[in-house]
Design a protein that fits this description.
It holds the Pfam family Fe_hyd_SSU. By secondary structure, this protein is mainly α. The chain has 4 helices and no strands. The relative contact order is 0.04.
């Protein structure tokens, strides 16, 4: 029993008070740090949007004159429009599940860096 540390009631209250003080302070510091980080993110986001608006005159793809020329109903290559057969055939991608082939290569001992 001599190896155990005994604590008096006064010592316990003192330790509990210090622990409570640190927890309250850390919560407030954490709250302030979180608010500061959110403020920074908001300012950064505003500056990025402002710079984009100033630098890039064409911000939407449908406003790009080259895209409008391609989709022109009279002379454009994709004259059927954005949802036409040719634009769907040329511009849309198709998903192909290759996981079986990757697993087969791994089973043979190939090391793939994916």
């Amino acid at each position: 029993m001599s190896s155990l540390v005994t604590m008096t009631r006064r010592g316990f209250i003192k330790t509990a008070g210090i622990a409570a003080g640190y927890s309250v302070l850390s919560i407030n510091l954490t709250r302030r740090a979180f608010a500061s980080a959110l403020n920074f993110v908001g300012l950064r986001q505003q500056s990025v949007y402002k710079t984009d608006a100033e630098v890039y005159k064409i911000r939407k793809s449908q406003d790009n004159p080259m895209v409008q020329k391609i989709y022109n109903h009279e002379t454009g290559f994709l004259h059927e429009g954005p949802c036409g057969h040719m634009s769907h055939h040329l511009l849309h991608t198709h998903y192909e599940d290759r996981s079986a082939r990757v697993n087969a290569l791994k089973a043979k001992g190939y090391k793939l860096a994916l």
